[in-house]
Design a protein that fits this description.
Blueprint: H1 17-31, H2 33-39, H3 63-72, H4 78-84, H5 86-98, H6 101-110, H7 126-129
């Protein structure tokens, strides 16, 4: 069996999948496909018709952030955390969490999982923790 010849809509025998993916991602971005998918549906009264998925925060949270902050700052004990200062340690933990936001956005978008990254929630935010 031979593959169809390239051109006139034929499928190439060796497609360049990364290139195809990049073209699709750029099309979605330029076309505003995610926003269009939202705009085409009436949200209903008080959002009654919205599709909202709470599949958990996309960020390292809790102990992994603290362990990474400790590793990056060469901290091994609670006394060393206190010596550094709780506020400085907390800032190091927040930086650890935020370090991965860009990677998460890229990863999720590549899966065609459109997420409202600009209005997301993070478990490290006091409003979330206090809710």
């Amino acid at each position: 069996m031979t593959y169809p010849k390239v051109g006139d809509g034929a499928v190439p025998s060796s497609p360049k999948f990364p290139e195809i993916e990049e073209r699709i991602l750029e099309f979605w971005k330029q076309d505003g496909t995610f926003q269009a998918s939202i705009d085409q549906r009436d949200p209903g009264e008080n959002g009654a018709n919205e599709f909202v998925f709470y599949d958990g925060p996309p960020f390292a949270n809790g102990l992994p952030a603290e362990l990474e902050a400790m590793r990056l700052n060469g901290i091994k004990t609670t006394d060393e955390i206190l010596e550094l200062g709780i506020e400085k340690f907390n800032e190091a933990c927040r930086a650890s969490v935020m370090k991965y936001t860009g990677e998460w956005r890229e990863y999720v978008t590549r899966q065609a999982r459109w997420v409202d990254f600009d209005n997301d929630y993070k478990t490290m935010n006091p409003d979330y923790m206090e809710s």
